[in-house]
Amino acid sequence: MRSLSIFGATGSVGEQTVDLVLRAGGAAAYRTVAVTGGQNVVRLAQIARDLRAEVAVTADPARLDELRALLAGSGTEAAAGAEAITEAADRPADWVMSAIVGAAGLAPGLAALRHGGTLALANKESLVTAGRLLLATAAAHGARILPVDSEHSAIFQALGPDPIAAVDRMILTASGGALRDWPLERLAEATVADACRHPNWAMGQRITVDSASMFNKAMEVIETREFFGISPEKIEVVIHRESIVHSMVAFCDGAVMAHMGSPDMRHAIGYALNWPDRQRLPVAPLDLVALGQLTFQAPDLMRYPALRLAQATMRAGGKVGAVFNAAKEVALDHFLDRRIGFTDMAAVVDRTLDRLLAEPGLQNDATSLDEVLATDHLARIRADEAAKTLGRKRAG
Ligand code: NAD
Ligand code: MG
Question: What domains lie within the chain, and their CATH numbers?
Fold first, then answer.
């Protein structure tokens, strides 16, 4: 029987993974090793019971007693804290879903790769923060990474067996997010609620706000560079309002292969779960006639400065991706806590990059998790300073 673990099981991607595993037979089809979550231990315990997991881990040590009580008599062990999550990733499983949000997903992802097997990677922050380290760890241990971000799953499928050398461009599609039709001059006033009204996709709150600012696409551009090893100038972003084409590969002979489907993450999650086979999935069939038309337009860099910042990050190379991701996470925290405005998020990342680009050694690739974490830590301090300065300006 195939074994699996789900990191971030209580989140948007995690829940959809649980759904697909249950539909495929649940505990009768898969041996579940570990499931992890955050504050919602009631839901985590339910998932652990449904899948008959060996261990359930909450990120929050203050919730351990509650989790233990909820799991009483189930046969599932309870654990808590960041270290316990990484220890859970140290328990070998054939297939591991990495769906924690943020840089917190990196350490468990690396631990899972050291056991070989397959890492289904939704946690784009690990590739942006430590892409080379992640791929080198997979290569050293004979592990495979399958992309779960819909764009990268689409590119992976469109690429098929063709070599990267035959690729002219990888074209990422972007919906434009919740504020795509707002006048530019009003963007600074956008609230958290405004930024959370995504036109097409139902996702976690953080990635939904990142879609409105295009920091999500900016992360995905870097993710594309890291995962497929393609040069930055061959990566293009187009606004595609309908979110039907999930991304495309343009080959040297002029052929363009697109992955199409309804905007439903279970396409990408299910593909990674069943790879190299394909199984029937509970996704709505695509009705092209009902859709009528698909539209494409160039992104406006004034509206989406995050795309320009991603280019600067890739040009700088080395550990700058870790700076970009950390600064973006801090900026997002400040925006979600209503301490800075929507357009201040890009300013925080811009200032943090500016301040840290001259830092010695930053242009060199990270060779260890500790090195990545040190860069992440420093970038968070600088980004926090930048956000506080901008927040004071806003309040004053
Ligand atoms: P989410 O916020 O809905 O869920 C995140 C999960 O991680 C939850 O289980 C939460 O409890 C857990 N978590 C949060 N902080 C943690 C921490 N510090 N330590 C351990 N666990 C923690 O997020 P999501 O939208 O499901 O996204 C998960 C990942 O997948 C992100 O990297 C996101 O960018 C990526 N992704 C999501 C979607 C989507 O449709 N939601 C699409 C593509 C990629
Ligand atoms: Mg995506």
Answer: 2-147 (3.40.50.720), 152-261+278-291 (no CATH), 317-395 (1.10.1740.10)
Which CA distances in Å does 283 have to 104, 122, 279, 364? 30, 19, 11, 43
Q: Which of 39, 205, 207, 330 to mutate to test the pocket of ligand 1 (most atoms within 8 A of CB)?
A: 207
Nearest residue (CA) to ligand 1, atom 30? 122
Alpha-helical regions (H) of the chain: 12-23, 41-51, 64-70, 82-89, 106-113, 124-140, 150-159, 192-195, 205-213, 215-228, 266-274, 288-291, 305-316, 320-336, 344-356, 369-395
pTM for the whole thing?
Answer: 0.97
Count Cβ neighbours within 10 Å for each residue of 317-353 and write b for 16 or more, e otherwise.
Answer: ebbbbbbbbbbbbbbbbbbeeebbbbbbbbbbbbbbb
Q: What is the dihedral of CA 1, 266, 257, 168, to 10 degrees?
A: -90
User: What are the pocket residues of ligand 1 if the criterion is a CB atom closer than 6 Å to any ligand atom?
Assistant: 8-14, 37-38, 59, 85, 99-102, 104, 122-125, 149-150, 201, 203-204, 206-207, 265
pLDDT tens digits, residue range 319-348?
999 999 999 999 999 999 999 999 999 999
Residue 80: nearest ligand to its CA? 1
